[in-house]
């Protein structure tokens, strides 16, 4: 059974005339370009520990297969706003699983994209925990309901946004939650 013991967040931005090269540069800024990345769905494992990006990268070896939840977005339209975000919602009980969400958007600020990803993860967790809430209320209000329930310990997000390069070069943003099995 392969269950991650650690997880870290990272993000990056790349700009290049080639779309794939701009993605590579975004991975470089995120520090994860030298790994074989496998994207996975959105469960934060029970008893998994969140560590710093620096510590997480130090635990990895070039060429290693790594698993992550990743959001990415690209544009070659000058000044077009792009964003990518990972949201996280952790239950109060460490031996229960949490949720990770990914969201990518055009025309949204980093704050709006981050709030959306965080809200999405928290709402998925709230529904599995049976927390009663009104889905039509604003995220800030629901966040207070979730935390007040005592069943959701924490929510957060990591988000990268950028405006498309003024000369029409590809601009790529990535955000990721990287798992470490060690």
Give an overview in words.
- The chain is of the alpha+beta class and about 180 residues long.
- The protein has a single domain, classed as Pyruvoyl-Dependent Histidine Decarboxylase, Chain B, CATH 3.50.20.
- The protein is about 25% helix and about 40% strand.
- The chain contains 4 helices and 9 strands.
- The strands form 2 sheets. Strands 2-5-9-1-4 form a 5-stranded mixed sheet. A 4-stranded antiparallel sheet has the order 3-7-6-8, covered by helices on one side.
- α3 packs parallel to α4.
- The longest helix is centred in the middle third of the chain and has 20 residues.
- The chain is flat, with a radius of gyration of 17 Å.
- The model has no long low-confidence stretch (mean pLDDT about 95).
> What's the arrangement of strands in the largest beta sheet?
2-5-9-1-4
**Main beta-sheet strand count, sense and barrel state:** 5 strands, mixed
Average pLDDT metric: 95
* Terminal Cα span: 12 Å
Helical amount among residues, as a percent range? 25-40%
Q: Tell me the series of helices and strands, N- to C-terminal.
A: EHEEEHEEEHHEE
**CATH topology assignment:** Pyruvoyl-Dependent Histidine Decarboxylase, Chain B
Low-confidence sequence ranges: none
The CATH homologous superfamily is called: Pyruvoyl-Dependent Histidine Decarboxylase, subunit B
Number of helices: 4
Beta content: 35-45%
Q: Given this structure, which CATH class is correct?
A: Alpha Beta
The total beta strand count reads 9
Count of all domains:
1
The outline comes out as flat
Query: Which second-level CATH architecture applies?
Result: 3-Layer(bba) Sandwich
| Structural class estimated from helices and strands | alpha+beta
Radius of gyration: 17 Å
């Amino acid at each position: 059974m392969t269950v991650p013991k650690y997880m870290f967040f990272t993000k990056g931005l790349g700009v290049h005339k080639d779309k794939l090269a701009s993605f590579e540069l975004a991975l470089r800024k995120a520090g994860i370009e030298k790994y074989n990345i496998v994207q996975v769905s959105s469960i934060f494992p029970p008893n998994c520990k969140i560590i710093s990006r620096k510590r997480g990268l130090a635990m990895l070896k070039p060429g290693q297969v790594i698993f992550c939840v990743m959001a990415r977005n690209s544009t070659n339209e000058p000044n077009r706003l792009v964003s990518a975000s990972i949201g996280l919602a952790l239950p109060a009980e460490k031996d229960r699983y949490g949720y990770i969400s990914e969201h990518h958007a055009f025309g949204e600020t980093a704050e709006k994209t981050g709030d959306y990803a965080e809200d999405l993860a928290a709402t998925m967790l709230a529904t599995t925990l049976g927390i009663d809430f009104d889905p039509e209320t604003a995220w800030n209000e629901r966040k207070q309901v979730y935390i007040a329930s005592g069943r959701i310990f924490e929510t957060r997000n990591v988000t990268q946004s950028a405006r498309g390069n003024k000369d029409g070069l590809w601009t790529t943003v990535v955000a990721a939650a990287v798992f470490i099995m060690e």
